[in-house]
Amino acid sequence: MLDAPFFRRWLTATAAAVDREAERLTELDSPIGDADHGSNLRRGFRSVAAVLEKEVPDTPGAVLTLAGRQLISTVGGASGPLYGTLLRRTGKELGDTPEVDRALFAAALRHGVDAVAALGGAAPGDKTMLDALFPGIDALDGPSGSFGAAREAALQGALATVPLQARKGRASYLGERSIGHQDPGATSSALLFEALAETAEGVGGSREGSRG
Predict the structure, then answer these.
(1) Which residues, other chains included, contact 176 with Cβ-Cβ below 8 Å and sequence gap of 6+?
(2) Count of domains forming the chain
(3) CATH classification at residue 87
(4) What is the pTM of this model?
(5) pLDDT tens, 128-176?
(6) CB of 17 within 8 A of CB of 189?
(7) What are the angstrom distances between the C-alpha of 96 and each of 25, 63, 92, 121, 167?
């Protein structure tokens, strides 16, 4: 079962991953965006890690809701509202339940991903963060789903954005010139699933944690 400390560790691990990869995310964003994706997310997730140390919410839903609010208030551009919506909606779906299993979390996270799609008006194949989020949640959900499979699916989804032409966001203004670049939002979304799998493996060992 996954409790509030698990979700705090997940978001702290995400902050560490974003901090480590921030320069790469910005490099990916430079040719097709505003060259600020890495710096924006680094600021936002550092703020999330800091607020979770101070407030220590006691349910999974409260952890995610607080983190989502923090991202919206500290991250500029599109990243804050999108990642904030993802976490807030997932937290809302979890409600006040003190512990959740993988299936319940996956169902709630799918609501969060759907909310991101609605907010951005995008779909898989548009060369956005959804190209990692949807494969990730599909691999996490269902009887045979696992955290490890979600990590791999999200990574492959991010890599698969390279040959796509952007249809949403600032990159879409470039038209065919957006082809050949890996989408930074999909790349940072893959980091979210990477941190999730690492956190799960830390709880139950590599095999049990990856199964959820």
Answers:
(1) 165
(2) 1
(3) 1.25.40.340
(4) 0.92
(5) 999 999 999 999 998 889 999 999 999 999 999 999 999 988 788 788 9
(6) no
(7) 34, 10, 9, 30, 38
